[in-house]
Amino acid sequence: MIYTVYLPLLAVLILAGMAPVLGQWLSPSVATRVLGAVALLTGTATVTTLLLLGIGGVLRPVALVGWGLDPDTARALLAADSVPWPLGAAATMMLAVAVVRAWRVIRGERAALNDLRRVVAGHDGELLVLDDERPYAYAVPSGLGTIIVSTAMLSTLDAAERRAMLAHERAHLSGHHHRYRMVSRLAAAVNPALRQLDRQIGFQIERCADEHAATATGRPVAARSLARAALAGPAGSSGVLAYAEHAVASRVRALSTGPTPDRWIAVLPSLVLAAMAMAALADAAGACCRLLAML
Amino acid sequence: MGAPVTHRVRGAEVVEVVQMSGRSSRVRRESGALESEVLSALWAAAGPVTAAQVHEALEAPDLAYKTVLTVVSRLFDKGQLHRKKAGRAFVYWPVRARAEHAAGLMTAVLAGDVDRTAVLQGFVDALDADDEAALRTLLDRSRERRR
């Protein structure tokens, strides 16, 4: 247990560090899925490791104090390699913080979605136009999904550019992109080292939707639409998956060049690391269960 | 596959669909997309326009006029458009009340309380001067090419 419980944390850090490389070597839709899986795994691994460290750290003080344990059990527990109690205590505190932060993310997301639901309530159709002089476009992932676009955004773009913008937002809805973002936000909430991964997923989601727009209208129109929307002015604080956000200049540049081919070999190191992390976690969990069984 | 599948469609309408390799649902999505395009063209128009003018504004040569007319009528039936007789044809323009109401609600969401904005924001990427210049160059270039 002593080594295998720390290995997943190391693997999580390396996996998070590899996120930008994966983004470069994979097409956006594949990168979104792979990075989503990485976020799910690293987030879960973080929580599990903290939990195991917490349990392991508590056992030794319990054995020392005795607390209704028979002397043989106490001796056996002390003999077993366990987590030093200060580390266990730190892990427990970090776990508590992680749970609170994750809960805040979920609560915030729910509140935002509820507010957005009120905006689209009773509307029948895919597109809801909002009479607003600020240019914005959002995909609201509730029910079948609604695209909300301000009148300012519509008048900024020409017919083909509007088609690109609508295709982009539609891609967010049909691809359930908000789920990927939710997973990556939660992962970043439980482990601040995963913030970079969260940002990378945010970017890849936008790139993925941009590629759908490019398929619908051609790359030059999609690039033009995005550039014009970005220059029309800041969209203000973001709702869920806004159109002209997330490193617009890089996205326009990516649309100006050809599509990225998938180089699957890039996934291999992540797969190996993920497998190692899971094996280490399983081993540590097994050791933890054996210790608990002694009680 | 092939068995009747009940789909919940926007609003209260429930439609029985025989799903064959997902084709019918794709058709529905495409008709929804066309509706969005027509609606956005009507909003972008300077004033009331005929279905023929909408057809022209869409700049989609492969799209039949009759299809646009059908979509415009459907939008009118849904209460999203006003219309009046102008000569031999109808002119249409969007209903503003709902759009104004929704914009008001959206402003409240965008303003939000500090906490929520932090959660929602992800990372907002302000355009720096270099990016702005690059984007302007791109738009200028595409304008020249279109000429």
The percent of residues in helical segments of chain A reads: over 70%
N- and C-termini, Cα separation of chain A: 17 Å
Major β-sheet strand ordering of chain A: 1-3-2
Query: In which order are the strands of the major sheet of chain B placed?
Result: 3-5-4
Q: For the report, how would you describe the main beta sheet of chain A?
A: 3 strands, mixed
Please report the total strand number of chain B as a whole number.
Answer: 5
Number of domains of chain A: 1
Most extensive interface: pair and counts?
A: A-B, 68 and 59 residues
The CATH H-level homologous superfamily of the largest domain in chain B? Winged helix-like DNA-binding domain superfamily/Winged helix DNA-binding domain
Number of helices of chain A: 12
Count of extended strands of chain A: 3
Provide structural commentary.
The complex is a heterodimer of chains A (295) and B (147). Chain A has 295 residues and is mainly α. Chain A has one domain (7-294). In chain A, 71% of the residues lie in helices and 4% in strands. Chain A contains twelve helices and three strands. Chain A has helices at residues 7-17, 19-25, 28-65, 71-79, 85-120, 151-156, 159-174, 177-190, 195-217, 219-231, 248-256, 268-294, and strands spanning 127-130, 137-140, 146-150. In chain A, strands 1-3-2 form a three-stranded mixed beta sheet, with helices on both faces. In chain A, a hairpin with a 5-residue loop joins strand 2 (137-140) and strand 3. Chain A starts with 6 loop residues before the first helix and ends with a helix. The relative contact order of chain A is 0.18. With 147 residues, chain B is α+β, with helices and mostly antiparallel strands. Chain B is 57% helix and 16% strand. In chain B, strands 3-5-4 form a three-stranded antiparallel beta sheet. Chain B has a two-stranded antiparallel ribbon with strand order 1-2. The longest helix of chain B is centred in the first third of the chain and has 22 residues, at 23-44. Classes of the chains: A mainly alpha (295), B alpha+beta (147). At the A-B interface, helix 5, strand 1, strand 3, helix 6 and helix 7 of A face helix 1, helix 4, helix 5 and helix 6 of B.
